[in-house]
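Board notes (copied after class):
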Amino acid sequence: MHDRPVTAAGQGQKRPQPIPAKVKDALRLMVYGKLDDDECKPLDFIAAAKECDIKPDQMRRYLDRPNVRAFLMAERRAFRAAICAGNEAALLDVRDNAKNGLARIGAVRALEGMEIADAEVHAPGRQQLPGLTVVLNVPGLPSSPQPPALDVMPDRTIPRPLSPATLDVRAASRPAHHD
């Protein structure tokens, strides 16, 4: 993965410095935890910095940099994708083995909802892209066939609904105010 921005720095702008390997390791410890930890408990940034021989104040300054934050967010997205990959299996286990009938029904509904959502997202022709579609009708060039026009004026007159009765609206007189 690239740590540099897509656009080049203009005159007078500083390019973001590459992220040192130690900082990347500390960021990964903050997301994934230690590799030898069975629970994979993530470390806070001070513990992660110390683990990678970085001073906590230096780590704090790195976390203020946009490219470091972008790297951290990318690692978090990858982690979420990895842990969500097992959601279907967990729901299957609940559906097949739960003693609570409502939990089983909820698992079935969740699995069916995931299937429907996935089908909608990946359906052909469903992808919306930003932009405009410009249609040019040039005389003399073949164009796409036009749909038949609809006759919106029927041969018979449609009766109009009757108007509601006229309402008698008068200003209410105010009661006299006595002091």
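Comment from the instructor: Helices lie at 21-32, 45-51, 56-63, 66-84, 87-97, 101-121. Residues 27 and 72 are 6 Å apart (CA to CA).
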